[in-house]
Amino acid sequence: MTTVKEIRAWMDSFAPYHIAEEWDNSGLLLGRTEETVKGILVALDVTKEVLEEAEQKNANLILTHHPFVFSPMNRITDEDYCGELLLTAAEKRIALLCAHTNLDMAIDGINAHLCRLLGIETTEEIQPYKTGTIAREMTLQEFLKLVQETLHCYGLKYTGDLTKKIKTVGVCSGSGSDFLATAKTDVFLTADAKYHNHQQAQQLGVALVDAGHFETETIICPILVEKLKASFPEVPVTLSEVHKGFYQYF
Fold it and tell me: N or C: which end of the chain has fewer CB within 10 A?
């Protein structure tokens, strides 16, 4: 029988928790370590809908990228969304395990996979973002189309000249605009870029592409499902069907 503790250890071997940022809250957030895992549901976030899906699929462990509990909590009651969900998960004996910045930076983590999907050659250095080169020099317009088709995101926000030649690329899944200046690349791909990030990019002469937080990170979920199935064939593992991100484009 596979326990919650064993799944956590497997996650640690794939994306070591010690490489997570100090401010992060990765790891087992709720649950008994010796509980037998009957099923695993993989999603980017824990939501009320994801929790209900886990119960329907008889999955008593939800593995996510984002920590549901991020900031310290003074109380856990049913008077707020977070408390209500934690109480429900605990009452139904559903454990919550996450791998956040450690999964971003892991050698075979989100940023590395994002680079592979886009054909970007990088080193295996562990850092918050990846830099590398694309096999064929292309214009920014061609790069934007590549990102759209690869990540299925059709509301790209960008700064830069569409005719600019692109060879070197910086990649940081999720919110990574703070690394824009240090990456020193032709284009920097990330999400959650603010107005002043785009202003900075223009001043630096770097093309900045915001491809969406969900879109740049959800790519890891199917990978985790397949890896878990291979390592724990006796445990049913499924990909969430209800979590599609929180925003849409009109």
Answer: C
